[in-house]
Amino acid sequence: QVQLVESGGGLVQPGGSLRLSCAASGSIFSIDVMAWYRQAPGKQRELVAGISSNGVTNYADSVKGRFTISLDNLKKTVYLQMNSLKAEDTAVYYCKARDVEIIGLDNRRYEFWGQGTQVTVSS
């Protein structure tokens, strides 16, 4: 089992910045992808940004140019730097990790979620 602990959420004014962190611990095989999702009230959970263990990133169109995802492989921690925040960025942000167990020629993938951290953008 992998445990994910998020931190860094809070209340910020429009145009401000926040940095989210998510640290993975526990019985880990090999995490190959970590990502941030968010869920606003009454909406479906959506992908915000993802990063592979070799540094390949992808972003939702709505956050490109404003958010940056990064990964510290040694610390097993993923970060989300959020700049130029808007009211529509308000949501609970969740961290997800994909853990890969290699058994012979077979790869088994397991997904784990953090408990979420609230981000509120308001004046």
Please supply descriptive tags for the structure shown above.
123 residues; four-stranded antiparallel β-sheet; seven-stranded mixed β-sheet; mainly beta
How would you describe the overall organization of this protein?
The chain has 123 residues and is an all-beta fold. The chain is 0% helix and 61% strand. It is built from no helices and 11 strands. Strands 2, 4, 5, 6, 9, 10 and 11 form a 7-stranded mixed sheet that branches. Strands 1-3-8-7 form a 4-stranded antiparallel sheet, with no helix packed on it. The model has no long low-confidence stretch (mean pLDDT 95).
User: How would you classify the quaternary structure?
Assistant: single chain
What structural category do the secondary elements indicate?
Answer: mainly beta
User: How many DSSP-defined strands?
Assistant: 11
Rg for CA atoms: 15 Å
User: What's the shape?
Assistant: elongated
Which percent range fits the helix content? under 10%
Uncertain runs: none
How would a textbook summarize the main sheet?
A: 7 strands, mixed
The N- to C-terminal Cα distance equals 40 Å
Give me the strand/helix succession.
EEEEEEEEEEE
| Mean pLDDT across residues | 95
Range of strand content: over 45%
Total DSSP helices: 0
